[in-house]
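I am still getting used to backbone structure tokens and would like to learn alongside you. Label the sequence line and the structure token line clearly, so we can match residues to local backbone shapes. Go ahead whenever you are ready, and we will take it from there:
>
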Amino acid sequence: MVIAHIDLDAFFAAVELHHHPELRGQPLVVGGDPNGRGVVATASYAAREFGIRSAMSSAEARRRCPDAVFLRPNMSAYREWSTRLWDMVEPECEVFEQAGIDEAYLELNDEDPLEHAQQIQQLVREKMRLSCSLGVSAAKVVAKIASDFDKPGGITYVPPGEEAAFLAPMAARKLPGVGPRTEERLTKVGISTIGQLAAMDDDHPLLRGKWGAVMALRARGIDKRTVGSERAERISISTERTFEEDLSDRAQLSERGREMAGRVAERLTEKGRYARTVTVKMRYPDFTTITRAQTLNHATDDAIIIWRAAAMLIGAALRVRNEPLRLLGIGVTGLSDQRQLTLFPLEGLIQAKASPKHEVAS
């Protein structure tokens, strides 16, 4: 079995350039307001030459490139392009698994996987006029890392038996699942590369437990996961907003929260899904971020119910730390295609009482 990971190059920016061809060649940033506190969602390669990267503040992006063009994300357009593209790619491979709006795993034919990957890349280029990069390997994790090795528009093939050698010189942070905290722990014991991680003794304290064992195997290029026969099921739906100014007014906070809950509910309805758990994300001015979750008694796609649960979570958190918020996010998890019917859908739905108008309590 040979696996390819296909990653669309600067996807949001590429779609915007189709909509705004007059911007081709100019540094383009898709993200929040550079005059406020937005962040970069993605940047064209012309903008990346100035050091602009995803998750950078939009203000910093403008500082690095005053002539950059900034556009707000158009997620509905990106989802439409993504659906069209993956519907076109899926029949061209043995097995297909969508991993995100702009990435997927493909199972290629064993006879000439590199040629197969080239054919798919050419199909995307000719039919959708989009650039993509592919990583090809017998191991899923290696294919994922390899797709980022030669961007934009490259294909990186890692032959069987060479997975560990390919990964060895890379920073440990490149290994999927190694986040900032894990990287910090590894650095404290002198581990900075994937090769050093691969060479650690299996009984090292950092490698104990299920995740530690998985991390060690993947660092050695060993990954038994296969490409799914169906598109990956989305396990959450969420939306969040960084406010132009820290928000302390409870009425305004409730208004923003209801809008977010409404957007989440719309996405659930579009997909014919129901959610069992409501989550909130809150970021304070010092960048401290907390998340809270509430499990419902019955799965729902109702905006009022989602906001009612979120309002309680936000209110409880603010009673502990009553400060303005820099960011608020609302999401749902535990998705299913069925909900349990009840004669009184709002009564007893959540496990704690909300204020009468479902506002964030003062």
In short: The chain has four domains: 2-10+76-159, 11-73, 164-219, 236-336. DSSP finds twelve helices and twelve strands in the chain. Residues 131 and 247 are 40 Å apart (CA to CA). The mean pLDDT is 86.
